């Protein structure tokens, strides 16, 4: 066979199932080509675009050290290249959820190659489970996380490392051409950095994970999301490490494993119900009359809602491409409940900005907050952004780290500054709607409105 190996979001040289496949099947391969399709991120934030390019460049450099030069083309040119190279087969990662555009996902890519008479071989690369192997006794996907977790946790086992020699791959691979205008000289290997950071987390912060997972004033989380999104690390490598260290600290390791299984749960659901990417998972909410208030949406995006915890979180996202999970819950509830804006708007904004964007986790995260998802937060348990702020940023460190204006202001004023307008003006010279916005909605009023909207659908 003439095999093209599509290197999309599997940007790692170690633990790479695509390379393992080649070594296992090398006797069947007559010609081998590595192909790296570049994603179009023109509508993504600069921070996200830069990170993607850094990862790709680092990976191409790492391959080059092993004497492997892939063809580098845009997605649009893949079919043309398949014809030029007379490919009979392509090897494609079939479980990637972090692609930037839907047309880069497996079903679309598979169809595109098949239209060019190329046979597609799908391979697991970035998730642990094969979706159908996680099903319940009725051969249906679990729709409640706890049941999924209980049923599948026991199947996490140590995966033996399968070695491959790059010199074997380089010997049989044809050299490719860089058809992009990216310059690939001297770039940092982010795979190495990712493995180093992960090791540091295991030697340090995981010890606080279970207790402090929701504390946004300190960062005790792993930052693993972005490494998994670009395939810099394999989830099986992560699980191996977690199982190896497990006995030393069961509570924290189990807490972490539970979160990683969340990612698998949403992945399985997304493969079975792809329509949930744009439609409410719960059918009864599909005709909900959401708000499409652009002024409110802009204020949310820019971090100008008058609720400091929301504003600081959005500023952090815009500045760094990252947001802590508790803050993702707070800002998504604020958008879909307090502002009653269609969750797909928020989902799309996160897609453009989150470096660790993952379609399955993001869509289901948003639908959890909007109460339209499976196993979602009940609509009557709406977050109060002020209480959330007091509870999870009690000393105000996070808010102060993003909103300069509040740096010298005592903490008790900053969770709900609109309430202390006159004191803030008199003592700290903060003028509302000039230096900082008045809150754009009243929490109690919006809560009443939202409850009525949801109740009117649930009464039938
Ligand atoms: C509205 C909303 C949108 C989200 N969008 C994304 C997204 O686009 N990409 C993404 O990877 N996660 C998303 N999440 C889940 C979660 O917020 C992130 O996985 C986490 O914050 C990433 O940071 P970390 O790696 O430091 O997390 P850690 O706390 O260190 O967790 C380790 C890993 O566990 C997994 N994980 C943890 N929490 C969740 C969760 N609730 N759902 C699914 N997987 C989880 C992730 O793979 C994460 O990297 C979203 C959550 C919400 C509420």
Automatic annotation (TrEMBL):
Photolyase/cryptochrome alpha/beta domain segment(s): 1-128
Gene3D superfamilies: 1.25.40.80, DNA Cyclobutane Dipyrimidine Photolyase, subunit A, domain 3, HUPs
Cofactor(s) in the UniProt record: FAD
Entries under PROSITE patterns matching the protein: PHR_CRY_ALPHA_BETA
Keywords: Chromophore, FAD, Flavoprotein
SUPFAM superfamilies documented for this protein: Cryptochrome/photolyase FAD-binding domain (SSF48173), Cryptochrome/photolyase, N-terminal domain (SSF52425)
Record PANTHER family: CRYPTOCHROME, CRYPTOCHROME CIRCADIAN CLOCK 5 ISOFORM X1
Family, similarity comment: Belongs to the DNA photolyase family.
Protein name: Deoxyribodipyrimidine photo-lyase
């Amino acid at each position: 066979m003439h095999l093209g190996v599509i290197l999309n979001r599997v940007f790692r040289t170690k633990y790479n199932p695509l390379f393992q496949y080649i070594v296992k099947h090398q006797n069947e391969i007559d010609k081998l080509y590595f192909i790296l399709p570049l994603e179009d991120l023109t509508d993504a934030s600069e921070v996200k675009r830069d990170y993607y390019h850094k990862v790709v460049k680092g990976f191409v450099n790492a391959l080059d050290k092993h004497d492997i030069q892939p063809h580098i083309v845009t997605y649009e040119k893949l079919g043309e290249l398949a014809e030029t190279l007379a490919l009979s087969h392509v090897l494609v990662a079939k479980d990637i959820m972090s692609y930037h555009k839907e047309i880069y996902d497996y079903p679309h890519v598979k169809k595109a190659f098949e239209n060019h008479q190329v046979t597609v071989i799908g391979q697991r690369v970035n998730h642990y489970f094969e979706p159908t192997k996680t099903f319940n006794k009725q051969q249906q996907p679990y729709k409640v996380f706890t049941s999924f977790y209980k049923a599948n946790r026991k199947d996490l086992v140590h995966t033996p490392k399968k070695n491959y020699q790059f010199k074997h791959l380089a010997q049989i691979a044809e050299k490719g051409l860089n058809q992009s205008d990216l310059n690939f000289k001297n770039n940092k290997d982010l795979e190495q950095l990712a493995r180093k950071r992960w090791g540091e987390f295991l030697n340090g912060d995981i010890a606080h994970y279970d207790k402090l997972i929701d504390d946004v004033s300190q960062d005790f989380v792993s930052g693993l999301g972005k490494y998994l999104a670009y395939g810099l690390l394999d989830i099986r490598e992560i699980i191996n490490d977690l199982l190896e260290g497990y006995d030393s600290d069961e509570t924290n390791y189990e807490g972490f494993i539970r979160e990683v299984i969340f990612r698998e749960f949403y992945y399985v659901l997304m493969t079975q119900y792809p329509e949930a990417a744009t439609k409410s998972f719960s059918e009864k909410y599909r005709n909900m009359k959401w708000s499409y208030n652009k002024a409110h949406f802009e204020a949310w995006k820019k971090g100008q809602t008058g609720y400091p915890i929301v504003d600081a979180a959005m500023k952090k996202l815009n500045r760094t491409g990252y947001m802590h999970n508790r803050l993702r819950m707070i800002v998504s509830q604020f958008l879909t409940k307090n502002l009653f804006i269609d969750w797909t708007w928020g989902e799309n904004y996160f897609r453009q900005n989150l470096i660790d964007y993952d379609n399955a986790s993001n869509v289901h995260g948003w639908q959890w907050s909007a109460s339209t998802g499976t196993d979602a937060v009940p609509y009557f348990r709406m977050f109060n952004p002020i209480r959330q702020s007091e509870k999870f940023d009690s000393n105000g460190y996070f808010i102060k780290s993003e909103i300069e204006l509040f740096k010298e202001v005592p903490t008790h004023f900053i969770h709900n500054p609109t309430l202390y307008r006159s004191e803030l003006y008199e003592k700290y010279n903060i003028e509302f709607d000039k230096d900082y916005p008045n809150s754009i909605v009243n929490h109690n009023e919006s809560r009443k409105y939202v409850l009525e909207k949801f109740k009117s659908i649930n009464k039938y």
